[in-house]
Amino acid sequence: MTLTLLGFYLLFCLTNFVFFLAFLSFANARNRKTEKPGFPVSVIICAKNEAENLRNFLPSILEQEYPDFEVVVINDASTDSTLEVIEEFQKIDGRIKIVNVQNNEAFWANKKYALTLGIKKARNSHLLFTDADCAPQSNKWIAGMVQNFSAEKSIILGYGGYFKHRNSFLNKLIRFETLLTAIQYFSYARLGSPYMGVGRNLAYTSEEFYAHKGFASHLHLRSGDDDLFVNEAATAHNTAICFNKEAITRSVPKQTFKEWFQQKRRHTSIARHYQLKHKFLLGLFYSSKLLFWLLLPILLIAQVYPVIVLSALGLLLLLEFLVYYKSARKIGETDVVWLFPFLEVFLILSQLSIFIANIFSKPSHWK
């Protein structure tokens, strides 16, 4: 029995090792120097009850050093002063275009319907998406993202991180989970199988959007306007990644574990609609992680070949540290790397809790 457990432990360790070898494809990737393309761009922001965030972050969009862009701000049936705030900015800056979604239209799949109206309002074919609570980390965000467009590349996956809060374990957990997710979707894209992007920092062309009939195939789902569209439309040939520090956005993280847990429940519920190969690989990664960490204390307590068990653990942690550190340096998240074994275990157990919770009840969606 003990040898069987050891065999499974080594198998799960090997599985994790192979995944992190694949993740080196992003960890070893080189950045591009930011340049200014010559084509016009439409930045699209969907806002629902985001008056305060728009006041705080919309100026960082308008201050971008880019020769030709507009900002399409969608008021998605807000009940606060979101519309008034957008109108105030529009009086100051004519580059702002307003799309006002009325309450009687809100049943049309909520955010996806609102985004579709925003895309139709945009006058440019190159579209750059972010959220109302996001702030670009430099005034070269637009240039850094859209320079990756080309005749072949019509979908650009960017990095949308979160603001740092010192002395907060939840903040480190959120940013570590975001780092791990980015390592995965960037690596899969570089290996020719893109599967998701984040709406906090994502770009694609209107031609690509209309070619796939927008969000039609998943319009009945209230979330997934970003990752489900990418999962359906992205290919090895039409997708590029952007991890330039000048092209990063950061947004306001959740302040309580309950809020974060509900957010992750929504994200996890959408993943089951991914393509089968992506569901299999993501499921294999997380299940092998979980079983590896569960078997480790059992084998150590039972003193089953501890030298072999610890040697396998050491080799895996060394590779993981290499991937995490090299990746985190690219996108400014190195402070979470030093706690990665603890954060990884906590995250995996949280994923298990989220999976169980989603079996018994449906998570709430877009505000």
UniProtKB/TrEMBL annotation:
<feature type="transmembrane region" description="Helical">
    <location>
        <begin position="6"/>
        <end position="27"/>
    </location>
</feature>
<dbReference type="GO" id="GO:0016757">
    <property type="term" value="F:glycosyltransferase activity"/>
</dbReference>
<keyword id="KW-0808">Transferase</keyword>
<feature type="domain" description="Glycosyltransferase 2-like">
    <location>
        <begin position="42"/>
        <end position="168"/>
    </location>
</feature>
<dbReference type="InterPro" id="IPR029044">
    <property type="entry name" value="Nucleotide-diphossugar_trans"/>
</dbReference>
<comment type="similarity">
    <text>Belongs to the glycosyltransferase 2 family.</text>
</comment>
<keyword id="KW-1133">Transmembrane helix</keyword>
<keyword id="KW-0328">Glycosyltransferase</keyword>
<feature type="transmembrane region" description="Helical">
    <location>
        <begin position="337"/>
        <end position="360"/>
    </location>
</feature>
<feature type="transmembrane region" description="Helical">
    <location>
        <begin position="280"/>
        <end position="301"/>
    </location>
</feature>
<keyword id="KW-0472">Membrane</keyword>
<feature type="transmembrane region" description="Helical">
    <location>
        <begin position="307"/>
        <end position="325"/>
    </location>
</feature>
<protein>
    <recommendedName>
        <fullName>Glycosyltransferase 2-like domain-containing protein</fullName>
    </recommendedName>
</protein>
<keyword id="KW-0812">Transmembrane</keyword>
<dbReference type="InterPro" id="IPR001173">
    <property type="entry name" value="Glyco_trans_2-like"/>
</dbReference>
<dbReference type="Pfam" id="PF00535">
    <property type="entry name" value="Glycos_transf_2"/>
</dbReference>
